[in-house]
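Hello Y.,

Per our agreement to keep a running log of every chain we model this quarter, I'm adding this entry. I've kept the format consistent with earlier entries: sequence first, then predicted structure.
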Amino acid sequence: MNKSFLLIFLIFCFIDYAPAQQKKLSLEELWSGAFVTKGMESIYPLKNGKHYTVLNTNKNTGVVSIDKYDYSTLEKIETVVTSQEIPSKALFSSYAFSADESKLLLATEVVPIYRRSKVGIYYIYDLITKEIIQIADTIEAKIADVGRNSITLEAFGDQAKINTILELFKPFGIKEIVRTGRIAMAKG
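Predicted structure for the entry above:
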């Protein structure tokens, strides 16, 4: 009885799975991304409690976008910004909202340099005016380091220029400012 039951069970399993093994796989299918898992990147909840944003990449066009979704319906409400709106058309890999959610900090061409530190090209996108500013070029500052929750900026210039930089970053929260004052160096 046990042997016949086992034999019937094995035949049933073989018949059930045998047709599934007839499909031939091609290299094109493997490399085209047909078997790549799909999922969401990080979800960033907005302060209104009704919406969240997600960094999406369109595999067909290669365009990266930050899209806003509704929690209750899970439907996309709007596209906040796309990589097409950045002057260099660079693909951004991460973003952060300012404290009042009126501006976005966009990171492109990010390269790790040491542990959690990295460098890259950073933009500030104003959600109200739709204006985008490349940080290092516009304010003539050097991004010295980017940590998980901070950016270290090196800038020099007159007091008006430094005050402009501070106003630009104030919505994101400034943790620390170090000023050296006027420095003169003699030649020789």
